[in-house]
Every structure is written in structure tokens, then in C-alpha cells.
Design goal:
The protein is α/β, with parallel strands linked by helices and 492 residues long. It has two domains: 27-34 and 58-202 and 212-219, ATPase, nucleotide binding domain (Nucleotidyltransferase, domain 5); 225-492, Nucleotidyltransferase, domain 5 (2-Layer Sandwich), CATH 3.30.420.40. It is built from 18 helices and 24 strands. A hairpin with a 6-residue loop joins β1 and β2 (10-12). The protein is globular and about 65 Å long.
Length: 492
């Protein structure tokens, strides 16, 4: 995405899709970092061409990337093996090993402010050590996905506080690596860590080779960048208390800005740092549009046909409840979970109710986390929707009613990419010696689409409140059954 620095107007954009490595065992989700590099360079060229600007006028650039991915590098900076991703659940055993060695979940949360679910990076490092010792012996350092792209752009290893807080290796309260966690994995791991830095400092300048290839200036700044949720917070103007962002993408996230750490003593929400040098309490669910898209494809619907089917079913889908744990789940932490339709009968076993239940189910799953955030003192005045699901009017209506708050979308629909551009703008101003806050930039340039604003309907809110109670109880009651089912699947 190319953003004009004085107006905040998006003047160029490009996208490129790519998938996972196929044929891996269940639970393993991996990609080749070289795939990201190819996509970055292709979309950079396409976005610059579509903007019509002189590339040499670009002052700064920033990268938003998926969180938690483990990119192992050798002593020459070469990738040792494909990256294990945020949705990789094959490291559940390593999570248990680390937490047991530190005294259990409660002790871990007191130590670093976070639980250690399979998605976080720490368990991936121990997995490599236990399962691929030859590859582990080559490990010199590791980076997160956006850090690896920063390294490609600048030739410099670095990691900023926001994305680093999702590794489970850092104490989010002090913004320092936790020696106790590091030593529980490998006493020598501390020597393999990249330097930590604040979000308002650049990762470096663009490498001369790349600057020449794309016609960019050699002094082009590369900002610290951040995880997609941290950048999404910036891109949706979630840089001050009172605003909550709900991202309806392949996975789902709900997060808010805080001026101090928000730590859940039960570890149900992530106590991340953000990319403004504040904090970002966050809930992540692993199944959102992945679930609705499977239903859409099952019935051969277009996106418009899916929306029409949803609107034809009654609010609450006639009592049909969907637990959307198709890829396991992170919040609640059920790595062995599977999808469940509960309440099937002659009145609900139809395409319309199944489609609506899927959409309602994933939204209720996110609201499970939002209710926890409310318990911890976060009260949203406004919920800003982003991601592919936010384009669906029926889904926006469901979100306003399930979340029981005003829901609105953004003019810039790719919040994470837009946030990376705004952070790059902030870094540029800071390097010029200007005392500017990131919230000043987001208030000036982040615009909501008022035509999309929806207020909750009281009758629907009460229906969803009751469904939420049943879904939460059903999810809890089935935990042991999920484990039994996993054992059965391994035998079939």
C-alpha cells in the first residue's frame, strides 16, 4: 500500500496470495520465508506502478506481518527450515514442558504476563530442539515473520517490543527478555536473540541493492514495523483507550489500546505490547472466515449468496449453535478442538440456518474474549470492524448485536497495511526531530465509514446473550470429548 504523506490518501496498492506447505501432518502449519520475500517484492513493484508516483520520493516504508512465526537462521543469516506459523498447534507438548519447568501456568503468567499457548514462538523453538536436533545445532538467531522481511530490506537483525511480546520469551511488564523462560528452553538461547528496540525507532535504511532495483532512494527508512494486530491497531486508529478493533479475517482478533499492561490472571487474553510503545490486550480465535468460507464452498455459494442465505435465517439460527474449532482453538485454549453443530433438528438442518449459525458462532467466539476484556476493565465506546468479514452487511449486523456496541468499518479496509504506512510516517517525522505522537497521525488520517455504522438491536442482544451462555457452557463441557476424539482420529 502506498500512502500520500500529507493527506493520508492511499494512492497505490497491490496484493498477492500464497498458501501453506501442503502434505504436512495434522497440526503443522508452515510456509517458506522465501515465499514472503517474493510476494513482498512483487507487490512493492505493483503498488509503486499503480500509484503513478516517482519511487525516489518515498521517504519511509513499514512491514506488517503475521505474529508468532518462527524463522530460524544460521550464522550466515540463511533460513534453516520453513517457518512454523501462528496457527501451528503441533507444539502443544512443548508448551506443557516449558510451563511445568517454570512451575505451572499461574507462575508463568506472574513471570511474563502471558500464558504459553501453542501458537506462541517459545514452544516452536523447543520443538525444533527436540524434533530436529541437527537443524537446531545450526541455529544462530531467529526472527519473526515481519522481522525477517525487515532483515531482507535492511540487512539488520532487530525485533520490536510489540511482536516480541508474542513470543512468550519476554516479560511484557518490563519489556525485557525473561531469563527464566529462555533457560527453560536452552541456557544458550539468550545469546541467539536479536536486539530489542522501541516502535518509534527505524529498523534501518533500505539496502542499496533493493533501492536501485525499485528506484527508491538509498536513505529510505524502514520502520520497526510490527505484527499484523499491532499494525491493525494503528491502521484502525486504536491508539487511545475507548476504541476496540475486531478483525474478521481467516482468524479473528479483538484488541484495545491501554496505557499500562492489562494482564489476565487466568491467561485467557494476550497481554501484548503494541506498536506505539503502549500495550495491546488481545483475544485471538483461530477460526473466523475459514469457517464461513467452508460453509460457502460446501453449498456452492458466492459471497453475495452467502449473505442472502444468512439474512433468510432467523436471528439465533433457530437455536442452532456452532463451535467453530475447525483448526483447534486458541481462545479458549483448545488445540485439540473440532467443529460442532449443536441443535440440529428438522427446523435447523437447512442451508440458511447452517450458514447463519457459522457466522454467529465465530462472532460469539470472539465475544467470549471481549467479555473477558470487559471483566478486566476495558469498556469499548466503539467497535471498529476490519478484515474480509467486515465487508458483509449481515455480518456487521450480527457483530453489533453480539458485541452489544456500535460497530463501524474503516475507509481504509486493509488496516494492518495502512497501519504499517502510518507507523513509517511517524518514524520519518521522529527522525526529523519532530515531537509527534502516533495518535496525532491516526486521528488525522484514520477515517471511519459513517455510512456503515450500526447500533445494537436490544431484542437481538438478548437472544445472543442467551446463546453465548449456552455456547460457553457447551465449549467447556466438550473439552474431554475433544481429546478422546483426537485419539480416535489417530487410530482411523
Amino acid at each position: 500500500m502506498v500512502v500520500e504523506g500529507e493527506s493520508g490518501v492511499i494512492v497505490g496498492r497491490a496484493t498477492k496470495g500464497y498458501g501453506l506447505i501442503e502434505g504436512l501432518p495434522p497440526g503443522r502449519m508452515e510456509q517458506h520465508p522465501s515465499t514472503w520475500v517474493e510476494a513482498l517484492e512483487e507487490t512493492l513493484r505493483m503498488a509503486l506502478n499503480s500509484s503513478g508516483i516517482d519511487p525516489s520520493h518515498v521517504k519511509a516504508m513499514g512491514v506488517s506481518g503475521q505474529q508468532h512465526g518462527f524463522v530460524p537462521l544460521d550464522d550466515e543469516g540463511r533460513v534453516i527450515r520453513p517457518a512454523k506459523l501462528w496457527n501451528d498447534t503441533s507444539t502443544a507438548e512443548e508448551c506443557k514442558i516449558i510451563m511445568e519447568s517454570l512451575g505451572g501456568r499461574d507462575a508463568v503468567i506472574r513471570l511474563i504476563g502471558n500464558d504459553i499457548p501453542p501458537g506462541f514462538t517459545a514452544s516452536k523453538i523447543l520443538w525444533l530442539k527436540r524434533h530436529e536436533p541437527k537443524n537446531y545445532s545450526k541455529l544462530s538467531t531467529f526472527l519473526l515473520p515481519h522481522d525477517y522481511l525487515n532483515y531482507h530490506l535492511t540487512g539488520i537483525f532487530s525485533m520490536e517490543y510489540g511482536d516480541a511480546s508474542g513470543t512468550a520469551l519476554m516479560d511484557v511488564k518490563s519489556r525485557k527478555w525473561s531469563k527464566e523462560v529462555l533457560e527453560s528452553i536452552d541456557p544458550s538461547l539468550e545469546d541467539k536473540l536479536p536486539p530489542l528496540q522501541p516502535s518509534n525507532e527505524p529498523a534501518g535504511n533500505l539496502r542499496k541493492e533493493l533501492a536501485s532495483r525499485f528506484g527508491l532512494a538509498e536513505d529510505t527508512l524502514v520502520s520497526a514495523g510490527g505484527g499484523d494486530n499491532m499494525m491493525g491497531a494503528v491502521g484502525t486508529g486504536n491508539t487511545k483507550p475507548g476504541i476496540v478493533t475486531a478483525s474478521l479475517g481467516t482468524s479473528g482478533t479483538i484488541y484495545a489500546h491501554s496505557d499500562e499492561p492489562v494482564i489476565d490472571p487466568m491467561g485467557r487474553i494476550a497481554a501484548f505490547c503494541d506498536s506505539t510503545d503502549g500495550w495491546l490486550p488481545l483475544v485471538c480465535t483461530m477460526n473466523v472466515t475459514v469457517a464461513t468460507d467452508l460453509i460457502r464452498k460446501l453449498f456452492g455459494y458466492s459471497y453475495d449468496e452467502l449473505e442472502k442465505a444468512v439474512t433468510k435465517a432467523p436471528v439465533g439460527s433457530g437455536g442452532l449453535i456452532f463451535l467453530p474449532y475447525l483448526n483447534g482453538e486458541r481462545t479458549p485454549n483448545i488445540p485439540d478442538g473440532t467443529g460442532v453443530f449443536y441443535g440440529l433438528n428438522e427446523g435447523t438442518l437447512n442451508e440458511q440456518c447452517l450458514a447463519r449459525a457459522a457466522m454467529e458462532g465465530v462472532t460469539l467466539g470472539l465475544n467470549y474474549g471481549l467479555n473477558i476484556m470487559r471483566e478486566l476493565g476495558i469498556e469499548p465506546a466503539e467497535i471498529r470492524l476490519t478484515g474480509g468479514g467486515a465487508r458483509n452487511l449481515a455480518w456487521r449486523r450480527i457483530a453489533a448485536d453480539v458485541f452489544n456496541g456500535e460497530a463501524v468499518t474503516l475507509v481504509a479496509d486493509e488496516g494492518a497495511a495502512f497501519g504499517a504506512a502510518l507507523q513509517a510516517m511517524w518514524t520519518h517525522h521522529m527522525q526529523l526531530g519532530e515531537r509527534v505522537k502516533i495518535s496525532d497521525i491516526t486521528e488525522a488520517f484514520v477515517r471511519v465509514d459513517e455510512s456503515s455504522r450500526l447500533k445494537p438491536d436490544g431484542r437481538n442482544v438478548e437472544t445472543y446473550r442467551r446463546l453465548q451462555e449456552i455456547q460457553d457452557r457447551l465449549s467447556s463441557d466438550l473439552r474431554g470429548g475433544f481429546e478422546d476424539h483426537l485419539r480416535l482420529r489417530s487410530m482411523l
